[in-house]
Amino acid sequence: MKDRLRQQIGDALQACFDNNTLHSGVVPEVQIEVPGNPEHGDFASNLAMTMARIEKKSPRQIADALIAALTDCDFLSKVEVAGPGFINFTLTPTCWYKVLDDIAARGKAYGLSRVGQGRRVQVEFVSANPTGPLHIGHGRGAAVGDAVAAILQAAGFDVQREYYVNDAGNQVATLGRSIWMRLREQNGETIVFPEDGYQGGYIRDLAIKLREVDPAIAQLEESEAVKRCTDFGVSEVLKWIAADLKDFGITFDNWFSEQSLYDRNMVEIELAKLAAKGLSYERDGALWLRTTDYGDDKDRVLIKSDGSPTYFASDVAYHMEKFDRGFERVIDVWGADHHGYVPRMKAVVAGLGHPSDDLEVLLIQMVNLLRDGQPYTMGKRSGNFVTLREVVDEVGSDACRFYFLMRRSDSQLDFDLELAKRQSSDNPVYYVQYAHARVCSIKRNAQEQGVALPKQGAVDLSSLILPEELLLAKHLARYPETVVGAAQSCEPHRIVYYLQELAAQFHSYYNRQRILVEDPATTQARLYLIDGVSTVLANALNLLGVDAPERM
């Protein structure tokens, strides 16, 4: 609808130039917005105000000229100038009826677009160290990453979901030593557990299981035993992580091993490319990357003076390898504590000749777990954090994902367990899901009463004249644009806001108006309207990885 209106305004502007009502010949971008007050019309443009200086006329004079030049606009019921020069447009009800036909015709495809033009995008998220169970912070990152990927796919991008397995370095070595210590402890030795070891009860569980599958491990030399403990621990923890994510509705297209970078000599190969471009240099026996040339506050060490690579070196090689695989855009979902890493990674991308925006980092802030408004700590089995599994088991995957996506990812989130389980309008996810279930219930009641459900394009919608009916149709029309906006900004909370507004409008309409009335034509029209509501609710919930139940 915006595109159609934008075209009409553009044609009117050209007509003004042709008849010398306006003289500059400048055709600026036509901005179309939805007014905050519905009484101001369906759409508004500030074009007249943006042209005032160059045309040397008042905005209202320009607006009057543009309105006079509008032709063949039978879809407009009213056009007027407001305030200092805004042009407000009110569309005919017929325009909104066509939206309902479009929804009925496209079904699950309503809201999909080709904005992305098939551009290859990789979304890397979760990527938790394989040293323990996922905690609720990882869960929020998982929900955000998966929703961003789904929204980008809906907007026409070719998306790959990737998990980066940090299976090289000190953290996995510490996991192996921790398991080895607990295994020795179970064999009767007195152990002084190292302060940097992993303390959770899951380490004892891993030690018990390893001794069962490999009884001879206790007789091995310590170095070999620790290596086996490490390999076993990483493998088992990754199984836990994959299982938890699967139960959370998330699967990955690719699991990328950090160790594989070293096994394939990719770190050395990629760093050699940087050297060939003059992006790195040696100083004090170490190899440095010139990140200050691209906006970082200081250069960064790639290879330490003792010849060992830094974590940054493997991260650089990994991101270079991503672009080598042909991705045109790379999106990383990181914890907010990694914010200092963003400038240096963007510097790497810029140094390689890519626009720095080809790498986008979404930062995930912490989750404050509450019960009835009070801070709450669940079991300590996994250490000093609450696992994703504990929360999902208590409130369910749908509530978890919806709550994790309710706020901007870079803002802190309060998650009240009791509220997430409550079956009332106070619970946001219940309120939205119940809107879908309520439509399904109405349709079942209609069939039980012998009322045939309306068919696409075969319904007289002229009885849909109530303000709340047109408001619903207008909100449904905004769904495709909402998806595009969420994709362009990588902000899935926009879909959540949209859903909450749609559910509120529907529940309000239902509470004020009967759907199944005596007049068959009105009944059919209203069934057609609410069927469009249920389709959009389901489509939007699907992008968030949340079910749209038919019964509650």
Q: What does the model show?
A:
By secondary structure, the chain is an alpha/beta fold. Among the domains are: 2-91, Arginyl tRNA synthetase N-terminal domain (Gyrase A, domain 2, 2-Layer Sandwich); 425-544, Orthogonal Bundle (Isoleucyl-tRNA Synthetase, Domain 1). It contains 20 helices and 14 strands. A five-stranded parallel sheet has the order 6-5-4-10-11, sandwiched between helices. The two termini are 35 Å apart. The mean pLDDT is 94.
Short note summarizing the structure:
With 552 residues, this protein is an alpha/beta fold. The chain has helices at 2-18, 47-55, 59-69, 93-106, 136-154, 170-186, 201-213, 222-247, 258-263, 266-276, 311-324, 342-351, 388-395, 397-404, 417-421, 428-448, 467-477, 479-489, 493-512, 520-544; strands spanning 43-45, 76-82, 86-91, 120-124, 158-165, 254-257, 280-283, 286-289, 300-303, 329-335, 359-364, 367-371, 374-375, 413-416.
Layout of SSEs?
Layout: H1 2-18, E1 43-45, H2 47-55, H3 59-69, E2 76-82, E3 86-91, H4 93-106, E4 120-124, H5 136-154, E5 158-165, H6 170-186, H7 201-213, H8 222-247, E6 254-257, H9 258-263, H10 266-276, E7 280-283, E8 286-289, E9 300-303, H11 311-324, E10 329-335, H12 342-351, E11 359-364, E12 367-371, E13 374-375, H13 388-395, H14 397-404, E14 413-416, H15 417-421, H16 428-448, H17 467-477, H18 479-489, H19 493-512, H20 520-544
Parallel strand pairs: 4-5, 4-10, 5-6, 10-11, 12-14
Antiparallel strand pairs: 1-3, 2-3, 7-8, 8-9, 12-13
Helix pairs in contact: 1-3, 2-3, 4-17, 5-14, 5-18, 6-7, 6-8, 10-11, 13-14, 16-19, 16-20, 17-19, 17-20, 18-19, 19-20
